[in-house]
Amino acid sequence: MSTTLPLGWEDDLALTQQAVWQLLCAAVDAPDDPLRTPVLGTVHLQGAEPAPMLRTVVLRAADAASGRLSFHTDARSAKAAELARNPQAALLFYSAVLKLQIRVEGAVSLHVGDATAREQFDHIAAASPHTLLPYLGAAPGTPLDGLPPVLTRRSWRAADLAPAWPCFAWGVLVPRRIETLVLDPRGHRRARIDRSGTQWTAHWIAA
Ligand SMILES: Cc1cc2nc3c(=O)[nH]c(=O)nc-3n(C[C@H](O)[C@H](O)[C@H](O)COP(=O)(O)O)c2cc1C
Description:
By secondary structure, the protein is of the alpha+beta class. The protein is built from three helices and nine strands. Bound molecules: flavin mononucleotide.
């Protein structure tokens, strides 16, 4: 955790809501923070049957003002196809230090090839180019005969990353519900925070 929360935040609904955004915003720039690597849940189809699918992603941006959480992924990935078919998704965060679970539900917009994607791609190509390397190779899930040379290069220039651009997808989840659970020896605290337009309403619920 790379941010300081107000004393007693876990006993106060408004402070709990504030803490969620404070923690997620701080996690974006804190490589070792467990809240930086949530589990993203989507709905995939097993034949005709909807089924859950989970995977870890890196939280790349959190915006408390607009209430958005963002990640990037490969536009050719299974998750991108799942989100294109059904944008309903969830993010699950857990910090063992804070004993805090955060569940976020909402719809994901995937930006591919648009101005939003371009802005993020250029920023990431400059700041952390290695995170774009997967998008230079074969589509995720393609069987390989061996490790391709692209995976053994050690240095990169921005120009090398240009072919990654068509595969770059910027996912933006707009939460409609956030649920927190703080494991506390005095008794667990569970809060549900619902959004309607720009309004957020928080309630305690039984743990
Ligand atoms: C710590 C960690 C962080 C990851 N971050 C991302 C990410 O930000 N975006 C992404 O697409 N995949 C990320 N992955 C890989 C995914 O978990 C997953 O294996 C891959 O994207 C294929 O998922 P899919 O087949 O469901 O599309 C990460 C994996 C780990 C272990």
